[in-house]
Every structure is written in structure tokens, then in C-alpha cells.
Amino acid sequence: MSFTNVRAIPSPEAVIxxxxxxxxxxxxxxxxxxxxxxxxxxxxxxxxxxxGPCSADDEDAVMEYMxxxxxxxxxxxxxxxxxxxxxxxxxxxxGEGYKGMMHQPDPTKAPNMLEGLLTIRKLFIRVIEETGMPxxxxxxxxxxxxxxxxxxxxxxxxxRSVENQQHRLTASGIDCAVGMKNPTSGDLTVMFNxxxxxxxxxxxxxxxxxxxxTGNPLAHAIMRGSVxxxxxxxxxxxxxxxxxxxxxYIEGGYLNPAVIVDANHSNSGKKFFEQPRIVKEVLHSRSxxxxxxxxxxxxxxxxxxxxxxxxxxxxHVYGKSITDPCLGFEDTKTLLxxxxxxx
Length: 343
Hints:
The chain is α/β, with parallel strands linked by helices. 38% of the residues lie in helices and 17% in strands. It contains 10 helices and 14 strands. An 8-stranded parallel beta sheet has the order 2-1-12-11-8-5-4-3. It has a two-stranded antiparallel ribbon with strand order 6-7. α3 runs parallel beside α10 (329-342) and α5 (165-171) packs across α6 (188-198). The N and C termini lie far apart (54 Å).
């Protein structure tokens, strides 16, 4: 067993200096952070929609998508806080396949993580500057966070990472909203243990230092369904599942009870076309029960320019996911309008 050094990576400060965020964009980012925080804490009764491609694999296609999303956002911003998914690192179940723009800024070329870090900073900044919208990403690797922490307004901890101690401790020092997904096993206790850890102060090693965090009161739950021992998907977006989450929040005495429902992954069985139906059921549950209405702060949707996905065996389709299948933009627009009407 051995490691081969491929290239040295400059410090986070050096990388940030190469692709800096302007003062004006930093203010936009700060305001986006506040709006999301206000929804999580209940100061703002708008509904969060975390939405975008499964993976950000093509800067041009992503920015075209963001331009279209911005147009819809302007029409629904009094009801919805739209948070674009700009996911640049992809967890792979077997370790194989495209691992995201951070690894391969060009999916057709060899991995280059220095080029990837510069590319994703550029992409995040373009979203902030050109659309005014917040940027969300998954914290796949806590060690990479210092390179982009000045740009992200919403961070997700994935189902495979939520039990990891370094992810939990790092989340406790993040100054924006962090969503903790339930693990692939579906055990909500694991997710709530992670939320508790993230909401408390810790001392640990991070970015070359011993650090102390203050705890993150904006750490919250993302319900994404699970898989049983036979490999069958078990959804957890139904009314009874949301009641269970509410009871666990209240009995555990957590800060700012909040749930974001992921309409894809194991909740849909990765059947992207089921996402609108799932979202509508979640909205119905909110309308039926005041506790659920106050707790369920939003949904997460995978969406891109062209519906479905592609695996590289056919001619490349611009704006179509190369990882998990996504809802197409026309259906996305219809769904966003319906969400705005019903919240």
C-alpha cells in the first residue's frame, strides 16, 4: 500500500487569493445566509427549495440553468427561498465513476484537483455575482471546506458521511445552515445524534490547527429515504415519518427544529419523475398539521436543463445529468410555481 504525490496544493488562503470574492458579492452572500437562517429559525415563513443538478459537470450548462432559475425566482421570491444546488463533489457508492468537478473540472480529462478547486470557486462566484442566489454544496470532504467556505450559504452532509466524526465536528464550526441527511440505513437516531453534535461546541484538529467551535444552531435534518437489507428503497417523506421526526425533535430538545425533505434518492427510488408527486404530498402533510407545517422548512429537488441522465454510451447531450437522473427544466418551472401557490 502506498500513496504517490501527484501535485502540491497551495494553502486555502493562496487558492482564495487566486479566485477572490468581490466585496459586493460577499455582501450578497451574507444576505443570502441571513435569509436561509431566518427560515430555519422561524423568523421568515417562506419555504426553502434546494434545487439543481445532481452534479455540476459543465460550467456553461450550469450557468444556463441558473439563469433560467433566476427568472423563476424573481416571480416567486415572496413565497420561496430558492437555493441552487451546485454540487461539485460526488460520493460514489463503489468508489467508481465521475467524482465531480472538484476532482475533474473536465469530465473527459484526467483528475486535477488544483484545477478543480480553482474551477469550482469560479463557478460558485459566477452564481453569486450573476444571479444573486445562494450556493449550496455537499461537504463530501471536511478538509476541502476552507477552500470554499466563504462562498457557500447552505451545506449538506450526505447519507454516507453523517456518521463520520470529522463531518459532525466540522459542521459545528460552520456559520451557515447545515443539513444532516439520515443515513442510508434509515436510522433517524443517527441523524439526530449528528444534529446534536453539530449544535454543540467542540475542540478538534482542523486545517492544521487545534480549533474550538461554538456549535451551529442551524444544523437540521434532511429526510432522504433509506435502503433495507434486501436493497429495497424505504421512503421517509410520508406523514407518519414527519410526525416521528417532529416527536424526536421535541423530545430531544434540539435548537430550531427543521426538516428539508429530499424528493429524490431513496425517497423516489431515483425515479426523477416522482419528485413532483412527492413534493405535493409533503405540502399536503404541511397543510394538514400545524406542527409539520412549522417543522418542514423546505424540499430538495434534483433538476437540470434536460430530464433524465446519460452514461456516456450515446452522443453527449448538453445539460443532461451524467450522474443521477434529474427533472427537466420545464417540469421544474411548473413545480416551482405550484409550490409557491401552496405554501
